[in-house]
Amino acid sequence: xxxxxxxxxxxxxxxxxxxxxxxxxxxxxxxxxxxxxxxxxxxxxxxxxxxxxxxxxxxxxxxxxxxxxxxxxxxxxxxxxxxxxxxxxxxxxxxxxxxxxxxxxxxxxxxxxxxxxxxxxxxxxxxxxxxxxxxxxxxxxxxxxxxxxxxxxxxxxxxxxxxxxxxxxxxxxxxxxxxxxxxxxxxxxxxxxxxxxxxxxxxxxxxxxxxxxxxxxxxxxxxxxxxxxxxxxxxxxxxxxxxxxxxxxxxxxxxxxxxxxxxxxxxxxxxxxxxxxxxxxxxxxxxxxxxxx
Length: 293
Ligand SMILES: NC(=O)c1ccc[n+]([C@@H]2O[C@H](COP(=O)([O-])OP(=O)(O)OC[C@H]3O[C@@H](n4cnc5c(N)ncnc54)[C@H](OP(=O)(O)O)[C@@H]3O)[C@@H](O)[C@H]2O)c1
Known about the structure:
The protein is an alpha/beta fold and 293 residues long. It has one domain (4-284): NADP-dependent oxidoreductase domain (TIM Barrel). Helix content is 41%, strand content 14%. It has helices at residues 25-38, 52-62, 82-96, 114-129, 143-152, 171-179, 192-196, 208-217, 221-231, 243-250, 259-266, 283-286, and strands at 4-6, 12-14, 18-19, 42-44, 70-75, 101-106, 133-139, 159-163, 183-187, 235-236. The strands form two sheets. The protein has an eight-stranded parallel β-sheet. Strands 1-2 form a two-stranded antiparallel ribbon. The longest helix has 16 residues, at 114-129. The radius of gyration is 18 Å and the shape is globular. Bound molecules: NADP nicotinamide-adenine-dinucleotide phosphate (NAP). NADP nicotinamide-adenine-dinucleotide phosphate binds next to helix 7 and helix 10.
């Protein structure tokens, strides 16, 4: 059984969710259906993944009641600004085929046009007040940018979804989130980005320390990394399109890492980011047209 985490607005979020970044639309339907079948209850997508329709279809095919599933998606920077973000909610909800989204995030801060970031966040506040979303949050917000947001807006984000895996832990971000009562949700929680964007021979999946801990528990490196997040109080959203890995990545509730093992994994942090530098995500470099529903 999965566990839930209480957000700062008293909404419960399943700690272990399922990600679909880079999953093609048709495979999204089958992988989401499979994830829900084996027990995941949180699905993480984004307007810029261009697979929200597949997520909606996978949810409908699961046969589960809408109320049993926590859906989170993210607004892309090309739709920032107050009116644009309100419209972007309609696009995402329409593609997902739902009236209400459980958690809506700003995918990135647009630091070069911060007024548009603030406008988009104020739109999230409006959607929250109107009951169109149950919680709002951000993604890839570093502490200084978070402070700027908090100074100009009223609702403290419930979640900050950031890159966290054994090779990049961002303790400063986690600390800032904690001080503000914001849940840190780990993207690339198993360090997938160290394989598909970096040098696969230096991937977290092949790390000797993680491998040794995995062997001790008769588990896989992926399971150890996911367990590490849960025991340190983070939410994590592993992605897979492979049915065996989808199931194995959810089977992490029957063992416990020791304090020493958690510390050994913490010590693997290289301080080297796998994803783009958040401040370098500009409209010029990262514009995407988000289609209508
Ligand atoms: N907010 C953001 O900016 C942002 C950025 C990146 C990601 N995300 C979110 O976070 C989710 C997860 O991140 P991610 O996809 O980058 O990384 P991840 O979940 O850490 O790793 C996924 C990668 O590892 C492989 N994999 C999955 N399970 C495995 C296992 N048990 N053993 C070995 N390999 C395994 C997957 O391949 P197979 O599919 O073939 O199994 C895939 O290549 C995304 O899907 C997305 O929802 C958010």
